Amino acid sequence: MVDSSRAAGTQTLARGLRALQLVSTAGDGLSIQEVAGALDVHRSIASRLLSTLADFHLVTRGGDGRYRTGTGLAALAAGIHATLRAAADPVLHELAAGLGATVSLLVVEGGQAVALSVVEPPGGAYRLSFRTGSRHPLGRGSAGVALLAAQSPSPGEAANVTEARERGFAATFGEVEPGAYGVAVPVAVEGLPAACLNLITSRAEIAGRAAPALVAAAERLRGDLV
């Protein structure tokens, strides 16, 4: 028999994490009532959850009464990002060498795709690349599409996002860099931000054969993270 106090504690933790997730993904924050409605709990329970999160500076209450992400979340995100980078870097180096193209790990941050790690292929006189920390809007380019596909389906989402989720990868041309092919695979792991492995190249033949290797690498990365 499961101890009742332990079960209650687990439920409270799950609700608290879900409340944090809701606030962090809301563009203009959330009210106590909105959090209560999303969690299907009484307003007093939502208030206690948000107060506890505020005690740890994970959320903050504005003058309008709405809760938004707090400074403590930045430190938490930095630790999570470090974990993702450490797990992904060996995979990225293997992919870059094997495919002969620049590959990267990107995550969702607000409404943008942000590069956490970028690895260029060894050797070669010409390659496409970009800097760690580079960002572009979600929905643009293979990475932006794959990051949306790594999340739960949403009403009215773009057809290319649904297609990427169904086939396991996104492929685009010239959407972020003119003349560049992009191929990206979603990496969705419970408790971690939506991420993707992304390849960019000016060569159509590399882009055309990249998907299976990226899919296999993403599966390996997921296994290392769970």
Plain-language structure description:
- The protein has 7 helices and 8 strands, in the order αααββαβββααβββα.
- By secondary structure, the protein is α+β, with helices and mostly antiparallel strands.
- The protein has 2 domains: 66 residues, Arc Repressor Mutant, subunit A (Orthogonal Bundle); 152 residues, Beta-Lactamase, CATH 3.30.450.
- The strands form 2 sheets. It has a 6-stranded antiparallel sheet with strand order 5-4-3-8-7-6, with helices on both faces. The chain has a two-stranded antiparallel ribbon with strand order 1-2.
- The longest helix is centred in the middle third of the chain and has 29 residues.
- The radius of gyration is 20 Å and the shape is elongated.
- The two termini are 27 Å apart.
- The model has no long low-confidence stretch (mean pLDDT 87).
